[in-house]
Structures are given as structure tokens and as C-alpha cells.
């Protein structure tokens, strides 16, 4: 049995580059950018009017002039016009190009317009006000979004404005999620007294969907021959196999034996943690195998604690560690790392973690009451003091 730290190290030493693909930018939300996005022209590309109103040459206001003849109108989307008489003014609309010979914009609320004349009603204005200067945001060629960023709605807007209809992103791994066990039936079925509905596989599928990974899911009965024949095919066609169940010490937990017979190189089996101790991890040349124990909390936390970091590093995404303050004293006797379910709240800028009561790793309903897991390190001590800070894994 190895420590959580050792398990993470081994997994992160075995990351995998899945390459890149080019997709329409409108489909890229949530994906990992694999090219730098640069400005194809100045941002903004012209001196842009930032307020509906009139545009003047400031020197005449400074000389005390308050009445300006309206020479024309500059709508948004029209070519730049030129104010011929620099003592006049132009009506301008938000988003329009600033007319030539104008350097200041006064909003409509501060002027009165009558008989083709605009009278400025305020005594103080600033030269250049209400003008978004060309290139003041970014100059042509400037880096707008660095590669390895997660593409959100904000990035989509920038990608669109530089004219990239297609964008290069990290290719997603081809994943299949597999449940085992004769006690499991389909969600739509009415289970017998000795059966339960399949839930872990759907939890894993949902956790992967949060990473924008589309995956297949299958169920295999507790039959060693069927397991071996089916998994042999999956190892040839997928980058990652995610299992739930059949990795502990039960008489029907055939998975470790089957995987090794199929040539999957075991990296470790069993981690000094609770819940999720029987976790098995191995690999072939082209496929990684994460085999989680079948209790629902064990499956859930192991996916977050191990598969997520492996995926992030595989696609080049850097994630900072999050911490929380333990709000109550916790007693935990086994000399194991404890992934403790907690309710999280933000108080004066600090993240506080309150432990919740559960009935162990089989208590699926407890996930609804919590927001994450606080990681209490493996230690001889049995008391973890209120007010101490530990790593936290969130799922909301």
C-alpha cells in the first residue's frame, strides 16, 4: 500500500499527450486552447466614440465658446467623416469612428440642441473625454489569449473579434466508463430486493462531462471470462478505461487479475486513504486504466483526486491548489489520509469547511449535502484542530 502522495506522483509521471485538433470556435467553450491568439489589428481599431453626443475640437471650448453649429452626423458603422469647419461640431453615436478634426466628445445629457446648434451646458470638460483611443487596449500583434487557457465565454468573444472561425484545442482522450457487479441494474429498471440501480457509472460520466470529455459507458457482469474478453477489446480502442468496482478482496473481484493477464502493467494497488483505499492504477503502451473501488463515495473522490489532475497535466492545464479552514475539530483514528466530506462557505475572503455527518463510503446521498472533500493528511495524530488549513477538492 502506498501513500496518497506517492500515488499522485506515479499518476502524474504517466500523463499522455493526445495531440490537438482544429474545431469551429463556437464549439470550443470549455476546451483547452492550443495556440496563442493575437490581435490581428489594433484594439480598438480606430478612435472609437464611447458615448452618444457631440464631438468638438477642444481648443474652442477652452477659449470659452459654448455654442457649436452642427455640421453633420457620424453614425456607428459608417466611414470616418471630416469636420470641415473646426469651429463646428458633429453629432456622434456610440461605437462610431471619431470624425477628423474632433478630439473630445460631450454626451447628449450635457448639451442642448436647437435650430441645428448644440449648446454645451456644463463648464468643465476634459480634452479627449469619452473617446476610446485606437490601440489603447491592445496593439496589433499583441498576445490576447495564451495557449493552454481554458476557453470560456470571454475567450470566445475575443477569438471571434480577431476573425478566427476555427481554433486549435487539445484533443480529448477517448474514454470508456465501466461498471461491474451482478447486483447492478439499469436506471429505468425496478430492482429486486437484492439489487441496486447503476449510479457510479453515471456519476463518472457526469464528472467527465464537466471536463468536456464525451465518453461511452458499459456494464460487465462478474464473470472472469467475460471480463477478460470484453476488456481486451476496450484496451485496443480507448485511451482511458475508468472502472467502478471489482478491485477489492472479494471472491468476485476479478479485475486486478484480469488486467494483469491482459498485459496491463500495474503501477499500484491500494492507497493509504479513506475512502477509496483499493484503488488500482496501471497502463499499457496506449491506454491508462483507473480502477476505482465500487462504493460511490470512493469512486467519486478518486476521480476528483486522481483522474482530474492527470487530465489537467495531460492537456497542459495548470491548476492551483485550493485550501480551506477546518471549522470544527475532527477526530480520525486510522493512520491514513482522510478525504472528509465538507460543506464550504466563504467568510470574509476565507473558505471555511464544515464536516458533514455520513454513513461511510456507501452513503451516496451524502454527496448532495456536501460541496467537496477536505484532505486530512496521513498522520499518527488522531485530532485535527479547528482553524487549521488543508487542501480541499471542490465539486460545486
CATH topology of the largest domain: Molybdenum Cofactor Biosythetic Enzyme, Chain A
Strand content: 25-35%
CATH architecture of the largest domain: 3-Layer(aba) Sandwich
Reported for the largest beta sheet, the result is: 6 strands, mixed
Quaternary structure classification: single chain
What does it look like?
- Helices cover 19% and strands 30% of the residues.
- The protein has 396 residues and is α/β, with parallel strands linked by helices.
- Strands 7-4-6-5-9-8 form a 6-stranded mixed sheet. A 6-stranded mixed sheet has the order 16-13-17-21-20-18, sandwiched between helices.
- A hairpin with a 4-residue loop joins strand 20 (280-283) and strand 21 (288-292).
- Helix 1 (4-12) crosses helix 7 and helix 4 runs parallel beside helix 7.
- It starts with a helix and ends with a strand.
Secondary structure blueprint with pairings:
Layout: H1 4-12, E1 20-24, E2 37-38, E3 48-49, E4 53-56, H2 58-62, E5 67-74, E6 89-92, E7 104-107, E8 111-114, E9 117-120, E10 131-132, E11 143-145, H3 153-161, E12 166-170, E13 175-180, E14 184-185, E15 196-197, H4 200-209, E16 215-220, H5 224-237, E17 240-244, H6 255-261, E18 265-269, E19 273-274, E20 280-283, E21 288-292, H7 296-314, E22 323-326, E23 330-331, E24 337-347, E25 350-355, H8 366-369, E26 372-376, E27 383-384, E28 389-394
Parallel strand pairs: 5-6, 13-16, 13-17, 14-15, 17-21, 19-24, 22-25
Antiparallel strand pairs: 1-12, 2-11, 3-10, 4-6, 4-7, 5-9, 8-9, 18-20, 20-21, 22-28, 23-27, 24-25, 24-26, 26-28
Helix pairs in contact: 1-7, 4-7, 5-6
Amino acid at each position: 500500500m502506498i501513500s496518497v502522495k506517492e500515488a499522485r506522483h506515479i499518476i502524474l509521471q504517466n500523463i499522455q499527450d493526445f495531440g490537438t485538433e482544429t474545431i469551429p470556435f463556437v464549439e470550443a467553450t470549455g476546451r483547452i486552447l492550443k495556440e496563442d491568439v493575437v490581435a490581428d489589428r489594433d484594439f480598438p481599431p480606430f478612435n472609437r466614440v464611447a458615448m452618444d453626443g457631440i464631438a468638438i475640437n477642444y481648443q474652442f471650448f477652452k477659449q470659452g465658446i459654448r455654442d457649436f453649429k452642427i455640421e453633420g452626423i457620424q453614425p456607428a458603422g459608417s466611414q470616418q467623416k471630416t469636420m470641415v469647419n473646426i469651429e463646428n461640431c458633429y453629432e456622434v453615436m456610440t461605437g462610431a469612428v471619431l470624425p477628423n478634426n474632433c478630439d473630445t466628445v460631450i454626451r447628449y445629457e450635457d448639451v442642448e440642441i436647437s435650430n441645428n446648434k448644440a449648446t454645451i451646458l456644463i463648464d468643465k470638460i476634459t480634452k479627449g473625454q469619452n473617446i476610446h483611443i485606437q490601440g489603447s487596449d491592445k496593439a496589433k500583434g499583441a498576445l490576447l489569449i495564451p495557449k493552454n487557457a481554458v476557453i470560456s465565454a470571454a475567450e470566445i468573444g475575443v477569438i471571434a473579434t480577431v476573425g478566427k472561425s476555427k481554433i486549435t484545442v487539445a484533443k480529448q482522450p477517448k474514454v470508456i466508463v465501466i461498471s461491474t457487479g451482478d447486483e447492478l441494474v439499469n436506471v429505468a429498471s425496478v430492482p429486486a430486493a437484492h439489487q441496486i440501480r447503476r449510479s457510479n457509472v453515471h456519476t463518472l460520466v457526469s464528472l467527465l462531462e464537466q471536463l468536456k470529455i464525451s465518453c461511452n459507458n458499459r456494464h460487465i457482469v462478474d464473470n472472469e471470462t467475460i471480463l477478460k474478453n470484453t476488456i481486451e477489446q476496450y484496451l485496443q480502442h480507448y485511451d482511458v478505461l475508468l472502472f467502478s468496482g471489482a478491485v477489492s478482496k472479494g471472491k468476485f473481484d476479478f479485475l486486478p487479475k484480469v488486467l494483469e493477464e491482459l498485459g496491463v502493467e500495474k503501477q499500484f494497488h491500494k492507497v493509504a486513504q479513506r475512502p477509496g483505499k483499493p484503488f488500482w492504477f496501471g497502463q499499457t503502451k496506449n491506454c491508462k486504466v483507473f480502477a476505482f473501488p465500487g462504493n460511490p463515495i470512493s469512486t467519486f473522490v478518486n476521480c476528483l483526486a486522481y483522474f482530474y489532475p492527470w487530465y489537467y497535466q495531460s492537456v497542459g492545464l495548470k491548476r492551483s491548489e485550493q485550501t480551506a479552514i477546518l471549522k470544527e475539530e475532527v477526530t480520525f483514528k486510522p493512520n491514513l489520509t482522510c478525504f472528509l466530506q465538507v460543506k464550504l462557505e466563504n467568510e470574509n475572503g476565507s473558505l471555511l469547511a464544515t464536516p458533514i455527518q455520513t454513513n461511510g463510503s456507501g452513503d451516496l446521498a451524502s454527496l448532495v449535502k456536501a460541496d467537496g472533500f477536505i484532505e486530512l493528511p496521513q498522520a499518527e495524530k488522531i485530532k485535527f484542530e479547528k482553524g487549521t488549513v488543508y487542501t480541499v477538492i471542490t465539486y460545486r
